[in-house]
Predict the structure of Homoserine dehydrogenase.
Amino acid sequence: MSDIQSFRQSVEAFIASRGWTPTRFGRAIAGDPLFVFDLREGREPRSETRQRILRAMQDMAETGDTAPLRIGVAGLGNVGATLVRILQKDGDILARKLGRRLVVTAVAARSRSRDRGIDTADITWFDDPVALAKSDGIDLFVELIGGEDGPALASVKAALELGRPVVTANKALLARHGVALARVAEESGAQLGFEAAVAGGIPVIKTLREGLGSARIARVYGIMNGTCNYILTRMGNEGISFAECLKDAQALGYAEADPSFDVEGYDTAHKLAILASLCFGCEIAPDEILVEGITGITQADIKVAADLGYRIKLLGIAQRSPEGIEQRVHPTLVPRSSAIAGVDGVLNAIALETDHVHELLLAGPGAGGPPTASSVLSDILDIARGTRVPPLGVPSHELTPYRRAPMRAHEGGYYIRLNAKDVPGALAAIASRMGESGISLESVIQRPDLQVTAEEGGGAGTRTVILLTHSTFEAVVRETIARIAGDGFTVGEPQLIRIEAL
Ligand SMILES: NC(=O)c1ccc[n+]([C@@H]2O[C@H](COP(=O)([O-])OP(=O)(O)OC[C@H]3O[C@@H](n4cnc5c(N)ncnc54)[C@H](OP(=O)(O)O)[C@@H]3O)[C@@H](O)[C@H]2O)c1
């Protein structure tokens, strides 16, 4: 390696290990704020300049660089205020661990007067998150505002463009702009941490970026939304309806006043899109996901699934197939004996199926102030220690374009619940349509005891019929159901739930 190459490496390592921005290095060590930028663009400083800078770096290392890492936090809600509280309360412990202090020097939120239970006496207040992101008074920017555009995007971009490290918990932002932001970060040499964006307190991003670096992942699946898991768990345990469970989840603060983003599956889809990119080295593709929520799941489905040895979970699943990558979010029948079936309540779990370590299941709290803030903090510690990894696991120019495997080609088992008219020949007609399509049935069950209401597509004069198929193609199942509907022996919409082989 030439002298100049080794000099460049020393400078970059110094900046990374302290979480400094290039400008700070330029000012404090080189006496020129643009020094690092010029160096990155190919400028070759003279030998005397290099020696002077190397000596200054060495002096700082020897005298012990105890300058604190100055953190700016934009967003002081559930997660942001908790993070500031932890940094203030555990400051001494963290300083001993790191060998330097982590200090919140600036914050931004909308309301200056709201009591957030944190001491803001020595903290500079910004009304504008972008101004905070660009401020010279911070070394690292934390975005905890939320939203895929607006101030969250503008502030994260501004910090990265300056070469300033960023930590965010914002899945919507990452799902929509993750690749573009990773590019900006790589160009400016900044780090971008987003552990908290997927499954709150579970360290799945670190596991994928660092722990499983060389493993080839075949499938990733998991429970990524605590609200949905809470509702499905209570429906299963207590025999109450979706609507009742949702009301309780809202009263307990597990569900938003407008719960549609969670219960319709979009929150899970954002997280899945980020995971799929990290697992398969492809671009993030949130609009290519099949998304079905849990609003149509009835007590009849929960009961029959249980009787057949299954539980119903809202899963996000991404897997390789010969046609490309399949990304889907939908209620799923999982065998009761599977590990994921036992993950209940607001907990999340993510399973990674790899060639080397087979299946890895990470389970834990997927949301809430403390678990999420703890993941944000783990990114901050990594950056303070100088850990450098491309944001999406591989350099962004190595990401392959996303190739969607068509859902029609999906192969698996299906649970089909039909409201068959209570007339002679109805069941025989249904079975015969299945046979014509070559669909092999594992069970056919009539459950007159299960009352499916008129709103749920049933009602007087109908019988609940459940068909469980062996593995077949989605296209074949859908065409067959359409034919059955055309025969006039059923009423209302059929219920179709995919079964996942685990
Ligand atoms: N909560 C969780 O359990 C959880 C879990 C995983 C990830 N996340 C992610 O973490 C992020 C934060 O979530 P949260 O639950 O903490 O949200 P939150 O409680 O709604 O807090 C949002 C904060 O952003 C501030 N804010 C909003 N617009 C602003 C603007 N234009 N300028 C300055 N500040 C602004 C708000 O200020 P005011 O307080 O003054 O209104 C508030 O402090 C989101 O991306 C979320 O998806 C949250």
